[in-house]
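Table S2 (text version). Query chain:
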Amino acid sequence: MSLNKILERWKAASRKTIPPDKLLIMDRAQAELAESGIDESCLREGDFAPRFELPNATGQNVSLQDLLTKGPLVLSFYRGGW
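Corresponding structure-token output:
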């Protein structure tokens, strides 16, 4: 089974457990992002990321270039400081 199919099933199952008022907020935020056109400026599969330096989860600055010297990597962005 493809990852997309697995994620679609997970999304459908999780929507059944989320309160309707929270789903409304999530759906509205997703629609606002889609309408903003932000996806037009996103990197696509096969694109090269620009060089950058950002704080990691522990607050230490790390650069993309330094991390790539150790091998392939996956970037995970999260918002907030929950």
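Notes on Table S2: The chain has a mean pLDDT of 89. DSSP finds three helices and two strands in the chain.
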